[in-house]
Design goal:
Length: 282
């Protein structure tokens, strides 16, 4: 046995060891490559799934947004819409600006906001600006409604006070009615007595006018008596009758002729007859 035999054995062992290590290294590298491929495939699949999910989610969001924008065409929605709902819808229309549906909805919203709130947002206003604008308008309206409510309350209270005062006045009138009736009875009796006395005085003056000479002095005296009667219309009528019944001065010295037919050729001066208005005694 020589020394070369030991060296050969060592070399063979080293070669075997190296070959085994290289084989295991190759297997590990192969498995790593396979795993990388698998991982890469999984990553691609996951990315594709995420993309599909995002696309699906975006499509669903867009569909929901378009459905929300279609509400602005319904007058009933505007009748019940709150400030928050309007501002959120405005934000959706602003997010999809450039699309025909979104731009049409934005025009309708501008018109309806002007109609319902009395304000017109700028064309490029964002949702926050529109919301503050509508909230301020709502606050102003609430303040006006509160003031109107207070004014109506004051008016009702004033009417209640007036009604109460009217009731008190009516009660006072009913309480004073018996005394007023007694006073009216006494006053009416006095007026009847005074009217009777006035009529007697007027009849006496008329009788004097019928029996005596109807001079201007007598007519003036009778006029004063008529004036004291208090009836202006009757007084004026009697004065006119006295003036009409007056005879010429020469008739005062003549004897009153009897009732006979006068000749149509002689002087004829008929005495006119006047009925005194308001004199019931004649």
């Amino acid at each position: 046995m020589s020394d070369n035999d030991g060296i050969d054995d060592a070399l063979r062992n080293a070669a075997q060891l190296t070959g085994g290590m290289l084989a295991r290294l190759g297997e590990a590298q192969s498995r790593a490559s396979q795993q990388h491929a698998i991982d890469q495939e999984h990553a691609v699949t996951a990315a594709s799934a995420r993309a599909e999910h995002q696309i699906s989610q975006a499509a669903a969001q867009e569909q929901a947004a378009m459905a929300r924008l279609r509400l602005v065409h319904d007058p009933n929605w505007w009748a019940a819409a709150t400030v928050r709902q309007v501002s959120d819808t405005w934000q959706i229309a602003d997010a999809y600006r450039g699309r025909q549906d979104a731009d049409a909805a934005r025009e309708i919203m501008t018109r309806e906001i002007t109609t319902h709130w009395g304000v017109t947002p700028q064309a490029d206003a964002d949702a926050a600006v529109v919301r503050r604008l509508l909230e301020q308008t709502e606050q102003d309206r609430q303040q006006e409604r509160a003031e109107d409510h207070r004014a109506e309350h004051d008016r009702r209270r004033g009417r209640a006070i007036e009604d109460e005062a009217d009731d008190q006045d009516r009660q006072a009138q009913r309480a004073n009615r018996p005394a007023e009736l007694r006073s009216e009875t006494v006053t009416g009796t006095d007026e009847v007595v005074e009217a009777k006395q006035t009529r007697i005085r007027a009849e006496g003056l008329d009788q004097q006018s019928a029996d005596g000479y109807d001079s201007a002095e007598q007519r003036d005296a009778r006029a004063e008596g008529y004036a004291r009667s208090g009836d202006q219309r009757a007084t004026q009528a009697r004065i006119l009758a006295d003036e009409g019944n007056a005879l010429p001065p020469e008739y005062a010295t003549r004897t009153r002729p009897g009732r006979r037919r006068r000749s149509s050729h002689g002087p004829h001066q008929p005495r006119p007859y006047y009925r005194i208005v308001g004199d019931r005694g004649r």
